[in-house]
Amino acid sequence: MSKRNSKEIPDIVIGRLPVYLRTLRLLADDGRDVTSSQELGEHLGISSAQIRKDLSHFGEFGKQGTGYNISFLCNQLQKILNVDRIWPVVLVGAGSLGNAIANYAGFESRGFRIVAIFDEDSKKIGQAMGPVHVDDFAHLSRRIEETGAQIAVIAVPTHVAQRVADQLVEAGLVSILCYAPITLTTPSHVRVEYIDPVIHFQHMTYYLG
Amino acid sequence: MSKRNSKEIPDIVIGRLPVYLRTLRLLADDGRDVTSSQELGEHLGISSAQIRKDLSHFGEFGKQGTGYNISFLCNQLQKILNVDRIWPVVLVGAGSLGNAIANYAGFESRGFRIVAIFDEDSKKIGQAMGPVHVDDFAHLSRRIEETGAQIAVIAVPTHVAQRVADQLVEAGLVSILCYAPITLTTPSHVRVEYIDPVIHFQHMTYYLG
DNA sequence: CCTTGTGAATATGTTCACAGCA
DNA sequence: TGCTGTGAACATATTCACAAGG
C-alpha cells in the first residue's frame, strides 16, 4: 500500500531515486525488460532491501517472483521526481565551465533544458553558446519571467557567486546548483546544492594516507 | 583527548571536513583570525554540536570561551585530509568538460594538480589544454608511472566511461572521480565518486512538485 | 560571561527475516 | 520456486545538555 500520503519521505531517499532512474534507463537502453532489487543493488553497491524500502515509500511497483518492469518503473520514478516534463534552467557564467554545461547534450532526455546563459562580460554577451546566445546578466529578471525558470546554475568565480545568488533569489528562483566552491547564504525557501570536485578529491585523499 | 587511533571514523564525518576547510579558508581570506562552532554552523546550515563532535574525532583544536584559531584549524584539517601536499591527478577526456576542468585555476591551492590529459581523438592529441598537452590515451600506463598519480577524473561520454575506468584500474589508479552519468563497476579497493548535475536537478524537482 | 568537548538521549537510517503472492 | 513489501531489530548519526576551562 502506498505511503505517498503519510508523514514525510526522508530526503536521503529522494536523493537515491535519480540514481535508480539513471541506472534503470541504462538497463532499458541495453534492451532489458525486467530487473530485480537484487540485480539493481549489486550494480549500485547497495542492499536490495534498501532499494525495496525506498520504493515502498511511493507505492508497489514490483511483482513477487518476477521483479520490476523496467520501463514501468522508469515512468513511475519520472513522475515521482517530476521529470515527466522539461524544466527550463538558466545558467550564470559563460566561462569554460559554463560553456561545457551549455554544450552538454544529456540534459534534455532527463528533464532539463538550458534556456538562457548570462554573463557580465560584454565580450561574451551575444556570443552563441550551446543552444542559446549569452545574454547580459542585467536582463536576468526579464528573461526569468519570460522563460518561467525556477532552477539556476551558478558557474561563476567564487568571489561573485554570493552576489549572483542574491540576484537569482531576488528574481524569484528557488533552486540553485552552485559550482563555485563556497557555501551560499540564501533564504530558507531556496534549495541550494553544490558541485565541487575538490571536495571529492579531499575526501579521497583522506584514505590515501 | 584525540580519538585518531580509536575505532574508525565515520565516512560521513570525513565528507564534511573538506567543507569545513573550504569555509575556514574563505574566512581566513576575509582576514578573520578566530571563529566558533556556532558561527561556522550558522554559515553552513548545520548545528554547532555537529561541528564540535566531528572535530573531536581528531583532537582538541579549540579553546573554551574563545573558539578556534582559523589558520591553526586549517592546518590541522589539511594534515588530516592529507592535502598538506600536492596530489597529481590525471584527466581522461579532452572535450569541453575536460577543457573546463583543465583550465580551472582553483585546484593547486587546495592540494591538486592536473598532470596529464588523455583522449583517443587524434585531432585533440598534442593540443595544449590548461597546464599540459593532450596525450594519447594509449600512453596512459606509462604516464601514470612517470607522474605517480593515484587519482583520475573521467570526463568522457557515458558509453566509453566503463571501458576507461577498467583501464584506469588496470594502470593502478585507486581513486576515480566520474563525471559520466553511470555507476561504474570497479574492484573494491578502488574508490569512485560521482558528479552528475542531473542527479541534483532531479532531487530539486521532487520538491518543486 | 563565553565556548569547547563529550557522555547520554534521541532521532534517523539500514538490514533482517519472513509472510504472502505470482 | 523467486521475489516483493514490510514490521521489527539493529546500527548509525545527530542533538542535548552540562562540566570544565579561559
Descriptive account of the structure:
The structure is a homodimer of 209-residue chains. By secondary structure, chain A is α/β, with parallel strands linked by helices. The first copy, chain A, has 2 domains: 6-80, Orthogonal Bundle (Arc Repressor Mutant, subunit A); 87-199, Rossmann fold (3-Layer(aba) Sandwich). Helix content of chain A is 41%, strand content 19%. Chain A contains 8 helices and 10 strands. The first copy, chain A, has helices at 11-29, 37-44, 48-56, 70-80, 96-102, 140-147, 158-170, 197-207; strands at 34-35, 62-63, 67-69, 87-92, 112-119, 128-129, 132-136, 151-154, 175-178, 191-194. Chain A has a 7-stranded mixed β-sheet with strand order 6-7-5-4-8-9-10. A 3-stranded antiparallel β-sheet of chain A has the order 1-3-2. In chain A, helix 7 (158-170) links the parallel strand 8 (151-154) and strand 9 (175-178). In chain A, helix 1 packs antiparallel against helix 4 and helix 2 crosses helix 3 (48-56). The first copy, chain A, is globular and about 60 Å long. Residues 1-6 of chain A have low confidence and may be disordered. Chains A and B meet through helix 1, helix 5 and helix 8 of A and helix 1, helix 5 and helix 8 of B. The first copy, chain A, binds a DNA duplex (22 and 22 nucleotides) through residues 1, 10, 12-13, 36-38, 46-50, 52-53, 55-56, 60-68.
